[in-house]
Amino acid sequence: MRTPPFRQQPSLITAITTLLLLVIVGTVSACAPFAPFPGANPATAASATTNLDTPAADSPAASPSPTPGGARREPPVGRAAATTSPLYRVRGTLPPSRCAAGGIQEGSASSYRQFMTRITRCLDRMWRARLTAAGLPFSRPSLRFTTTTRVNSPCGRWPAKAAGFYCSTNRTIYIGILRDALRNPYPINHAQFMAHEYGHHVQKLMGVMDYYGRSVWNAGPSTKLAFSRRLELQADCLGSAFLRQVSTDLAVERADWDSIIEWVTVNGHKNWLRNDHGRGRSQAYWMQRGFTVGSPSACNTWTAPANRVS
User: Cα 294 from chain centroid?
Assistant: First the structure.
């Protein structure tokens, strides 16, 4: 089935730099602006009037996962967490998994919430299996829905014009049940948004988020932008690897994916005037790698040449 023209759900990474201690413990937020969907108005950032902030899932504490030999392995730290993660060395695609997420009814908050919750459960199953195989810790992120952006998190206030964000301090994905999203009931777009934000949670479990936070602390503007691009493009790749494995259930045909890549190549960078997420061609390159290979082994942006993360 053909999907309407694709609008990517981008994500903005902001290092919380109010206190050095907060950076050291991994306070990083990733967020997604409004208007990523077909028919949405980029200038509109309206929210529902009901003030509701309800959790959807708990996040148990993570513990190191046993390796096949029974030994427990702590995740690598520092630069090694990003450049030589054991997650890159697990062979094969992400484990195939059915993802009966259903559809989204236009204008229905309950339908949107149900779809996003089901997608998150699919992400939980797939990433639990892969991180365990790599001998890395796994914990589910908390998922919090809200119908207002007047929400504070340990990572700060809700970012301006954002549809949602990931906060690494409390390992929570915040999702706005907002008018722009409800007007655009295209499952692949919403699934891509959730898979990208979940990719930031995977980065947290890998130790990448902590490395990022330390690296950008007191760094110059160009260094911060370069690190931000590598972080965001990796999340694009990780999310796309997941989408490949559930593409049948989400009815994503090859022609649909090709249209997505074409759109991102031309438009993917237009929300980011500071180029903290990469040019459209860079976003498309890493999304294509993730979708084609279907494995985190394709997603090491941290050792990629500069022209691939520009």
Answer: 16
Backbone CA torsion sign across 49, 53, 54, 57: positive
Tokens of 255: 């022609």
What's the length of the chain?
310
User: Secondary structure of the chain in the HEC alphabet?
Assistant: CCCCCCCCCCCEEEECCCCHHHHHCCCEEEEEECCCCCCCCCCCCCCCCCCCEEEEECCCCCECCECCCCCECCCCCCHHHHHCCHHHHCCCCCCCCCCCCCCCCCCCHHHHHHHHHHHHHHHHHHHHHHHHHCCCCECCCEEEEECCCCCEECCEECCCCEEEEEECCCCEEEEECCHHHHCCCCHHHHHHHHHHHHHHHHHHHHCHHHHHHHHHCCCCHHHHHHHHHHHHHHHHHHHHHHHHHCCCCCCCCHHHHHHHHHHHHHHCCCCCCCCCCCCHHHHHHHHHHHHHHCCHHHCCHHHCCHHHCC
pLDDT in tens, 157-181: 887 667 788 999 999 999 988 888 8
Q: How many CA atoms lie within 13 A of 152 on its CB side?
A: 1
Angstrom CA distances, 230 to 17, 227, 258, stand at 19, 5, 23
pLDDT digits (tens, 9 = 90+) for 119-156: 999 999 999 999 999 999 999 999 999 888 888 889 88
Chain mean pLDDT for the chain: 79
